[in-house]
Amino acid sequence: MNRNYILLMIVIVVLAGGLLFLPQKANYIQQDPEKLMWDIAQPTRYITTDEVAKMIIEKDPLYQLVDVRADYDYDMFSLPGAYNIPLDSLLTEQSDIILDVEDINTILYSDDDLKADQAWVITRRMGYKNIYVMKGGLNCWIRTIIQPKEPKETAPITEFELYKFRQGASIYFTGTEISLDAGEKKTLNVTRRKKETVAEGGC
Amino acid sequence: MGPLIPLGQIASGWDFVIALLIGIAFGFILEASGFSSSRNITGVFYGYNFVVLRVFLTAVVVAMIGLLYFNYMGWIDLNLIYVVPTYINSMVIGSVLMGLGFILGGFCPGTSYTGIAIGKIDAMVFTGGLFLGIFLFSELFPALESFYYGDSLGSATIEDVFGISNEKFSFIFVIIAIIVFYVTWLIEKRVRKTVNPYKFE
Amino acid sequence: MDTVSKEKSIPKYINPYFGGVLLGLLLLVTFYITGRGLGASGAVKSAVVSTVEKIAPVHAEESTYYSKFISTDHSPMFNWLVFESIGVFIGGLLSGVLFGRVKKLRVEHSPKITSKTRIIAAGLGGILFGFGSQLGRGCSSGAALSGTAAFSFGGLLVMVVLFGSGYVFAYFFRKLWI
User: Fold this and answer.
1) Is residue A53 pLDDT above 70, yes or no?
2) Looking at the complex, does the CB of residue C81 fall below 8 Å from at least one CB of chain A?
3) Measured between beta carbons, which residues in chain C are less than 8 angstroms from residue B135?
4) What is the ipTM of this complex?
């Protein structure tokens, strides 16, 4: 056999074998600070309480909620179906199981934006994708979804529609009717989000 | 950090220029390796010419190991590389049909284009057949749809299915490839003594 | 059409391992640039879709398969794989010219069969390959080569079954080749 072939063979075996002995990389990719800064500036990382309400009502399988408050807060009140990952246990393996799911969007929330935002930065730094923050936190949730305010009469029609939706959602979440006009039937205006089409494979 | 196009680091206008250049390199390598000749290609099934196996396995090994090193160095994000989705039944039947088509036609799509380039009529007919076959499939698609989408594993990787890491798999693959290279070299030597030397055209 | 073969000497093909390393590096570069591997049959699919769209637009739109690939803002031929395949043709031509293999139109076949048999077999093979490539989500370059290199289980499956079934069928069609 040709000597060159033997040489080539040794090279490729050493290269392939070398892979086995490379020190393990950290299991997450560190974010480039510049990119992280850019991401932080993006308003798209926020999701409104209305969208969250809609998604809970529709039982949208593409989303999961994560409560980043302490566990006693979580036990007292929390959104239906939410996981609890207190801020200080974000780096544990348990939270990795929850967060590291492909194609599922994670929405973080706390009482206000602050803790959720902190958690967002940490998770981004750890390399998780599809992480969002519920804008305004639970305080905003109470204000908008549980006790929605009726818009002024001069308000545009879209605000009334939003109000209607919130009233419906409020009933859904509390089980009681709050200041309903009698006889008026409430329907939830829920529209399904369009599923993104996946690119078809090569060849 | 790659891959460049999915990460939006190349202006979209360059897409097709790059496609053309990559294609030219691809075609050149295929033709220069002898893939424009169907008798050359099918030699792999009769033991008189294992060029297909050699080129193919070497390419897989090089690309595999290269990808892993690129990933390790942080030059490419392996998670962003497109993974062909797996649909077991459909893929097995499709591959059996392709295997039959391969032995009958003597080309596969890429190599038939290079066959046309150097003036092979059989390559042109093969490509015409491809067109017809895909047309036929598209017309029959409603009847095949459930089979086509059935038994899906999603974008399953080898790691997902066999539970061995990419590094281990590529090492095993390299060892198998080397054994295959050696064994086929022995087979080729023996077969070439008995089979009349064939002429390349 | 009769076959012409005057060249007796073995043509200058490059060393297969060298070709393989080149192809592997090209595949790596392709992954680096595009995030997906090489492909070939996709171009024919685009050609089919655009032909059907031109001849029977209503039919194409109603069909669940064609409509997957029809986009309103550009023709299905305006596709990465189509450009790549044009490149494959040009590359093959370049290599053919360089190594002196571009000659007049001819059919290559085993001395035991006629050109006609070879043509029929090639056409049948093409149809089967085209049909199979759709079921298999890609051909030998798109699924088997690129898929396996990117650690796709499907790619490995296609590679093993494609070559495996090739060996099984090879016995029955040996007259075509040896």
Assistant:
1) yes
2) yes
3) 48, 51-52, 130
4) 0.92
CA-nearest of C155, C158, C127, C42 to B95 is C158
Q: How many CB atoms lie within 10 A of CB B153?
A: 16
Cβ pairs A/B, distance under 8 A: 40
A203 contacts in chain C (CB < 8 Å): 39-42, 81, 133, 137-139, 141-143, 146
CB-CB neighbors (< 8 A) of B22 in chain C: 26, 29-30, 33-34, 38, 84, 87
- The whole-model pTM stands at 0.71
- E strands, chain A, where? 46-47, 63-67, 83-84, 105-109, 131-134
pLDDT band at A193 (very low <50, low <70, confident <90, very high): very low
Q: Do B105 and C85 touch (CB under 8 A)?
A: no
Provide the 3-class DSSP secondary structure of residue B152: strand
Q: For C87, which of B2, B26, B122 is closest by C-beta distance? A: B26
CA–CA separation, C62 and A175 (whole Å) = 45
| Residues listed for chain C | 178
Q: Yes or no: say if A67 and A84 are a contact pair by the CB < 8 Å rule.
A: yes
Give the number of C-alpha atoms closer than 13 A to the C-alpha of residue C154, restricted to the C-beta side. 31
- Give the span between the Cα atoms of B62 and A26, in whole angstroms: 25
Measured CA to CA, the distance from residue C178 to residue C175 in angstroms comes to 6
Between helix B88-105 and helix B121-149 the angle, nearest 10°, is 170
